[in-house]
């Protein structure tokens, strides 16, 4: 048995003791600093509640403290789920409270005066009114735009997008600013950086890159409420995700009294038909809130590839042209069940269950045409792969949240369990023919059965303690345990019996335990806000290749500091600077050392000695009126986890390695433009520079590329209850390791009609109107000379009908995160 025990975190002996001393000193310095500064100022606490016109709490309404004389902003806050707010200030004088919420007009409270020695001021309840503006025959109601640019993240309001209706979560991400989706190579990058952590409802998916893409491809967009793009998270979040976090929040239930729901049915057609249907039910009675959601999605689609590989020289020059066509049928069931129960006024407990059942059938026709140096066809190798893939994902979350007082001191505890089972099977028949299409050797019948199971258990606790006078402390911890079992069985049909191939059969077991703790401290002083945090994560991982008796046992300890500084020059102008350190651990499947056959001339091989990659991220941003944003960031990544292609004779080997370093500089700009009251344009652009400084196979890999991602979203409010949307994006050429991608983009359009007094809607949309989504790329490195062109069913026309029934004044339920979102992004499949 071979055992590798080399730690990744290089510290002298006694490092754990040094870490404890460092953490203790850090805690004491923050506490002492904040406590001393807090004593220098006299603070007053202003509190109250905001309600809607029907008397229910205005959950998460925006509340502003303004000067009574000129309405300039003094300080802002966001109400909690019960509509209550707390604002603290050191200022004295005469003020007014202003409150607002999407779909409502601004409401102002009465004037009130704060004396210099006053400690508190309770305000009367503010009642919001619905905002409706009439423009000729056009009725304009306030609604969140599809893309919201906030100081610390970008939010995609999926349920407000006409174009997104009837599609998938992956379709929506393709139109997101700064996001590049390469579904053929199973990659999702954010602002030109790889290593993005994809979360579902704040929970990591623990899936491999391939399975994350499959999961998003099988998640109907009708089940998605928002998608958050967080490029520089704080220490409260798991440190995973070098490029940041993409958090997909699914639709939830309601929290006011009564019952409501919605039903959705839709269909579409590109080259093949699609159909979907869904039902959501919500009920609240007293302290109990119940919610449920079920969706079924039937989707037929296809993908094709045309790739050329050239190797050798002179008379031995050989060209292999690979033509692949893959029609696919997916059947997906998603279900969500949950309950919240209020135990008194300050404690809430809940249970949440998510399920996904996905079945995919595909027939992959793969032809390899082999040409000599004179471009004469020599041989044809065809493979027909009848592929099935069943995936079951079940997760459960139990939580308890307790508020100790009305000033914001609270404790939240989450316990999570998740199990993902993937059962694929590939039945392959390979035939060999000469230039005259005559069989030159017997057909080869093989099958590949690589089932995998991932089990996740996690517990976490978060504590928030406002110290008063603008000072706030957060602390928490998390413990996660993940087990992965990949059993790769490759068999060849011999004399009517399938015989295992010992060179391609292997069982790979992987166990990982991560113990983490963090502290965040923040303080507001006038126009300044400072937040500093430190997160520590200890990782123990054991990878066991049962067949080869190879064990890789590692443990390492890492510190992840973060600092955020915000300066509000005025109510309209806000500056923000931040720094954080992050990690991206290898996917479980990438660590499996065995061979997975992709076609007769291509195979994928894992690397059990992969190390995590680390990123130091700096960002400077400016926001104007919470709408226009500009940011400049620099990221330096070491031990970059990168997929590489290595030509070995006629066979192409695909594997994953650590490259030395990657530097990324990104400039991001987004702003709304309103030519008229009924027409809004939201352009955004990311310009980034990637520079690789590495070597592979004895040769330098120093690639540099200036690239850009541009998105344009236009919305139109038309007469007679009609709204329209026109959106498009363009990604310029991009370099990723050895891969050089060409530019691509698409244009999509949609139209919506409100029906039955706005209780129903009919949406029609067409994606990729000009049929321009054709990813192309090349590799020209060492002995590898590869070009490829991919096609998919990107142009699809869809029709979606939605009916909302019951009490439509119910408010959205509180969103909650579980403790296993980061781990679920790394499961192998």
From TrEMBL:
Domain Outer membrane protein beta-barrel: 402-803
GO cellular component: cell outer membrane
Keywords, sorted A to Z: Cell outer membrane, Membrane, Receptor
Keyword Transmembrane helix: no
Main location: membrane
Gene Ontology terms, MF aspect: carbohydrate binding
Source organism superkingdom: Bacteria
Record's subcellular location: Cell outer membrane
The protein's name: TonB-dependent receptor
Naturally occurring in which organism (per UniProt): Fibrella aestuarina BUZ 2
